[in-house]
Design brief:
13 helices, mainly alpha, about 0% strand
């Protein structure tokens, strides 16, 4: 190996190490900055009470519950739609050109800015159901449907064709093969995609500003879904931008960051668990 080649390899290795170190340092700085400024402002009173403008008390319990409501409502709708569409496109559809067009459309939808989804959700859902968590959940369904569908599709494709052929050879029908052989073989990818969708729902704010509203009212799940409500991300925007309560905003940001870390960790652990179980 000549000298110029060694210099080139050393330079490229050093450049890659520097890029990796810069990226890691940037992520750690952002996480540390948010957690250091946010965790000291987290208190039991903040987490367990609702805002009271008479006593100037600030509480985010309604925002936490609204976030839970909108996550549950979104998952209840998007999971059957996304998984069902993926199963049809992978296992039943015969027209490969149509499948390719739908996949291309799904990938395009994944790249559309969320503010556009918010505008469409406001026109389609808020005008029909009113500004409410339900309108926000339906908007998030459209946002997350391509992610769930494409993730499930890729997971279905990882199941060897020989598994299907063996089940067909034993006399099983199409749906029985999918239900008892294909889905159990790719359940790790499906669950991982669902968990990551929860992370995207938690972090969404732009679309919810147009559809779910800013209310901090404490409601039950059914009343809450039909009423305006602020999720944690919307509440962060309101407290930081509208009310200037940056301590509360940092506290909410720290909570969201911790939840995101837990969700990503859960997705990794669940994927490894089912992959290990499948290989046993």
């Amino acid at each position: 190996m000549n000298k110029k080649r060694k210099i080139y390899i050393g330079f490229m290795r050093g450049a890659m190490i520097a890029c990796t170190a810069f990226t890691a340092a940037l992520v750690l700085f952002l996480m540390g900055y948010v957690l250091i400024n946010g965790i000291p402002n987290i208190s039991w009173e903040l987490l367990s009470t609702k805002p009271s403008y008479l006593t100037e008390r600030i509480g985010i319990l309604p925002d936490i519950l609204n976030t839970v409501y909108i996550v549950l409502a979104t998952l209840v709708i998007v999971l059957p739609l996304g998984v069902g569409a993926a199963i049809y496109l992978t296992e039943y559809a015969k027209n490969k050109k149509l499948v390719a067009m739908i996949e291309y459309a799904a990938e395009t939808l994944s790249g559309i800015p969320s503010i556009i989804y918010g505008l469409v959700g406001m026109l389609l859902f808020s005008n029909n159901f009113g500004t409410s968590l339900l309108a926000g959940a339906l908007t998030l369904v459209i946002m997350n449907l391509p992610t769930v569908m494409r993730t499930t599709q890729e997971s279905l494709k990882t199941v060897p064709q020989s598994y299907r052929e063996g089940a067909f050879g034993l006399g099983a029908g199409k749906w029985r093969v999918i239900r008892t052989v294909v889905l159990p073989g790719c359940v790790d990818g499906v669950i991982t995609g669902c968990i990551l969708s929860v992370g995207r729902i938690l972090g969404e704010s732009a679309a919810l500003l147009f559809t779910a509203g800013f209310a901090h009212a404490l409601n039950g799940i059914f009343t809450g879904l039909t009423s305006p409500g602020a999720t944690l991300t919307v509440a962060l925007y309101v407290y930081a931008k509208e009310e200037g309560e940056f301590g509360v905003a940092f506290a909410i940001a720290a909570i969201l960051m911790i939840l995101t870390l837990l969700i990503n960790l859960s997705a990794t652990l669940v994927g490894k668990y089912f992959a290990k179980r499948r290989n046993v």
